[in-house]
Amino acid sequence: MIKSERGLLRRALAARFPLPLSLPSFASSLSSFDEQACYSNDGVKGGAAGKLRNAKSIDSCARDPLPALFPVVAVALRTLNWTLVQEVRFSEAAASHGFPHALEAFAMLMGVFSSGGMQREVRCLLAGVLGFCRDADCSSIGLLPTLVELSRGALSLLQVYGAAVQVLAEHLLVEDALETYYEAKRMGLQIGVPLSNLLLKVLVKSNNMDKAKCLFNNMKSCCPLPNVYSYTIMVHMYTSKDIFDIYEAGKILTEMEMSGVKPNAVTYDTYIRGLCRAGDVKSAWEFLQDLQSRGLPCNTNCYNALILGFCREGELENALLVFQELKQQRLTPDVHSYGILIDGFCKKGDVLNGYNLLDEMLSSGIIPTMVSYSSLLHALCMKGEMGCALSLFNDLHSRGYAHDLVSYGILIDAYCKHGDLDAASKLWQEMVQNNFVPDAYSYTSIIFAHCRNGCLKEALDHFELMLNNGVMPTVVTCTLIVDGFCKLHRTVEAFEFLNEMHKWGIIPNIFMYSVILNGLCKEGKSVCTWGILGAMIKKGIVPDVVVFTILIDGLVKIAKVEEALRLFAGMSKVGVMPNIFTYTSIIDGLCKNGRLPEALIYFEEMIRGGFVPDRIVYTSLIDGYCTCKDMLKAVELFNKMTQSGLVPDAHTYTCLIDGYSKLLLMDVAVSLLDEMMKLDLSPTVVTYTSVITGYRKLGDWDRAYELKLC
User: Fold this and answer.
1) CA atoms of 101 and 582, how far apart (whole Å)
2) Model confidence band, residue 58 (pLDDT cutoffs 50, 70, 90)
3) Cα(285)–Cα(640) distance, rounded to whole angstroms?
4) CA 622 to CA 655: how far, in whole Å?
5) 635 vs 276, 653, 675, 681, 695, CA distance in Å?
6) The pLDDT value given to residue 290
7) Which carries the bigger pLDDT value, residue 531 or residue 44?
8) How far apart are CA 37 and CA 552, in angstroms?
9) What HEC string does 668-684 produce?
10) Which of 71, 287, 397, 598 makes a 20 to 30 Å CA pair with 466?
């Protein structure tokens, strides 16, 4: 069978590569060349000088009528000199000396290194041959028996097929690896469990889940039988985010135990992480406690998985309980155990407990990583403790820690959010001087600070610098720039920027669309928003409550209340529920149009929906009733507002004062003005104007003049 396959292969390759196939046999000429090239007076000797002389003899042999790769094989046979052999590329050898000669030379080289136990080198040589066949669009399966034959017994079929599967799998050529694997099994070769596991692992890693299941089932039915590592790989597959199925992972665990294969700590750790990823941290804790009671293997990683699970759920007390249990089980917490807890407390803003854990960590002889210190830096910055954060940052450098891009980014971002651009710029310069290339996160922080300060030009300068330095902006960065244009009522330029953004391959998300829609509404261009909404829906982005609220508010502001009401009614039809801001916009629009009974209906609907009215909603209604001169209803709402714990602001009082002034009830208006001032609320021009106008209508010019002087 081997001879017929080799003949077919030679004919196929001869058609593709028209090179002479009748070359001198390596086996017949090896001894003569060995005497001529390798054992002459200038032959191979020990040490660097000998290797150099040998290299020269090989160069001279390149002009010899004998096959040009022959000297390399002879030297490898005598010296196992991989440094020399690895310079020879199969593709170059085949192009220069013909495919058959190159194939025979590489087969013999593989045999030589295999005999020397140098299997990594064998796989490297085989990779060159397989890569050549793949580039030539030629199947390599028929080639493998040929390599065995050409090696003159130095290689076995099992060795070559096994090496081929490993090479193809490691290069993520899963289709070819599987084809070779199943061909080997059809030939009756006893493929081992380690190689099967390698292929299984690569299939899972490359998201070839169906093929992984088929391979696993094939192992169970046709051998080699799966071992603990095989089952663990499958548990990992079912607990990965790509094909998450904790039920199937549990079934694999049960099947494993029923098959007599004992899970190890890694298996249990993988399953616990899966339960935590499913949000069932309580079950994960019960599972770990059951392992403890049964004396089954668990390690620090099992506990770390659970600590991480509780931290992600915000249950830090339970995370600490697991941490204490870890120590009671005579297992040693590692740098990850402490790092997870420190990060958990820091994210909650509990810097003190974070520092306490850091001290305990140091007392235990565990050196914290920059990850843990970065968690503390971030927590201090979030609390506004910039002095402490900078002190820690500088202290780390004096302790011998090398600052990384993350630590610089945390501080720069914090300074930008606190409006301290000078400090941020100083750190930026230091970061660049230390040969760090600012990333998208750092650029976005600086751009955010400039946009917030209304310095769009400076933001655009940094954006241009970002592009020039080859840093790809994120959709967040671009959204900030678009928002900057919109806030300055430069929506035309915002759309031009949007077109450029498409060229960079950045797709707008719902947040960016919200910014654009809001900008158009603020400019009174609500009519233009429908085109944007249509484009958004065409791209598969479903409008959310924020988008609907922006559109409703925009319509209300241009007095298109009926359209706003229709859009409000349409929200529920697409499964979007209004929030308090949506209700506020609708109620405010109805109040301003004198449609107070309808406004009250929406007000009551809002309360039934579980929303607590805020000061803005109450003030809108109070203003509406004051405008209609229904002061009894306005005062009723005012009292409800104060009874619910809301404090009226200057605008609320101004509405009431204006209402009473229009009714010429000046004593009540002035009383409210005095009450307002006692609450340290500053009357506005509108407030004084309302009272002055009221006194003038009554003809009390002296009182009006007194107030005017205020």
Assistant:
1) 79
2) very low
3) 49
4) 7
5) 54, 11, 14, 19, 22
6) 85
7) 531
8) 90
9) HHHHHHHHHHHCCCCCC
10) 397
Structure tokens that stand for 72 in this block: 């390399």
Per-residue model confidence as pLDDT tens digits over 359-404? 999 888 899 889 999 999 999 999 889 999 989 998 888 888 888 8
Nearest to 327 by CA among 300, 288, 287: 300
C-alpha 497/C-alpha 693 separation (Å) is 50
Structure-token pair, residue 682: 């500053």
User: Does position 522 have pLDDT exceeding 50, yes or no?
Assistant: yes
Average pLDDT of span 575-603: 91
| Tokens linked to 133 | 């066949």
The type of residue at 405 is: L
| Average pLDDT score over residue span 39-60 | 33
Q: Are 309 and 274 in contact (CB under 8 A)?
A: no
pLDDT higher than threshold 50 for residue 57: no
Contact 507, 475 (CB under 8 A): yes
Output the pLDDT for position 68.
65
Q: What is the mean pLDDT of residues 45-53?
A: 32
Rounded to 5 degrees, what angle do the CA atoms 68, 73, 74 make?
Answer: 100
| Secondary structure class of 644 (helix, strand, coil) | coil
- Given this model, what pLDDT does residue 99 score? 83
Distance in angstroms (rounded) separating the CA atoms of residues 436 and 432 = 5
Q: For residue 587, how many C-alpha atoms fall within 13 Å in the half-sphere facing its CB?
A: 29
| DSSP label at residue 368 | P
Place of tokens 């405010």: 588
80: three-class secondary structure by DSSP: coil
Q: Which residues contact 65 (CB under 8 A, 6 or more apart)?
A: none
* Nearest one of 147, 91, 80 to 119, comparing CA atoms: 80
Q: Which residues contact 7 (CB under 8 A, 6 or more apart)?
A: none
Q: What string of DSSP letters covers 373-426?
A: HHHHHHHHHHTT-HHHHHHHHHHHHHTTPPP-HHHHHHHHHHHHHTT-HHHHHH
Q: Residues, the chain, total? A: 710
Q: What is the residue-wise DSSP string for 17-50?
A: S-----PPPHHHHHHHHIIIIISSTTS--SHHHH
Q: Which amino acid would we find at residue 478?
A: C
On average, the pLDDT of the chain sits at 82
Q: What is the pLDDT of residues 439-456, one digit of tens each?
A: 999 999 999 999 988 899
Give the tokens for residue 376. Answer: 């503390």
For residue 324, is pLDDT > 60?
A: yes
Residue 373 tokens, joined: 């210190």
φ, ψ for residue 274 (rounded to 5)?
Answer: -65, -45
Q: How would you classify residue 23: left for phi > 0, otherwise alpha for psi between -120 and 50, otherwise beta?
A: beta
Residue 187 φ/ψ, nearest 5 degrees: -80, -5
* Res. 278: pLDDT tops 90: no
What are the Cα distances from residue 231, in Å, to 239, 242, 256, 274, 511? Answer: 12, 18, 7, 15, 43
Which residues have CB under 8 Å from 115's CB, separation 6+?
A: 154
Instruction: Identify the residue with better confidence: 226 or 10.
Output: 226
Nearest Cα to Cα of residue 464 among 448, 436, 480, 443: 443
pLDDT at 39 exceeding the cut of 50: no
Which residues, 6 or more positions from 175, have their beta carbon under 8 angstroms from its beta carbon? none
More confident site: 456 or 243 = 456
